[in-house]
């Protein structure tokens, strides 16, 4: 997902094509069928490690204008994000999405050549 954010053109298109495969592996092999979190019923280290997806992926999608995590394609992963973000310890510590959006847009504008910016 970071390659989608940091690039443009063909490199970004390739990353956009590759992202659903990564999300599919996370959903099928990581979450399994009945798990609320990656480790089962409670938040564990894997949930913390993948926690950036819960908050950052939506911001990146908005900045680059591409939807990669669609609920109908990844229902368990989408449910995990909802469960993860609703956990009190996580909810109390997530950065503000609006502030992140402003910051990520600014950083992307500075990092890409002017002709590459969307």
From TrEMBL:
Give the UniProt record's GO annotations in the biological process aspect: glutathione metabolic process
Which stretches make up the GST C-terminal domain?
Answer: 1-112
Gene3D superfamilies named in the record: 1.20.1050.10
Please provide an example of a Pfam family that matches this protein in its UniProt record: GST_C
- InterPro entries membership: Glutathione-S-Trfase_C-like (IPR010987), Glutathione-S-Trfase_C_sf (IPR036282), GST_C (IPR004046), GST_C_Tau (IPR045074), Omega/Tau-like (IPR045073)
Q: Name one GO cellular component term.
A: cytoplasm
> Could you tell me one molecular function GO term of this UniProt entry?
glutathione transferase activity
Q: Which CDD domains match?
A: GST_C_Tau
| Protein's UniProt name | GST C-terminal domain-containing protein
Upper lineage is: Eukaryota, Viridiplantae, Streptophyta, Embryophyta, Tracheophyta
């Amino acid at each position: 997902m970071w390659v989608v954010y940091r690039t443009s053109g063909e490199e970004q298109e390739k990353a956009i094509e590759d992202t659903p495969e990564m999300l599919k592996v996370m959903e099928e092999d990581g979450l399994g069928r009945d798990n609320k979190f990656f480790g089962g019923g409670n938040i564990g280290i894997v949930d913390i490690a993948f926690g950036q997806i819960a908050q950052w992926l939506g911001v990146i999608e908005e900045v680059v204008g591409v939807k990669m995590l669609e609920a109908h394609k990844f229902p368990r992963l989408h449910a995990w994000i909802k469960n993860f973000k609703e956990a009190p310890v996580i909810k109390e510590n997530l950065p503000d999405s609006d502030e992140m959006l402003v910051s990520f847009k600014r950083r992307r504008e500075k990092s890409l050549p002017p002709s590459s910016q969307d």
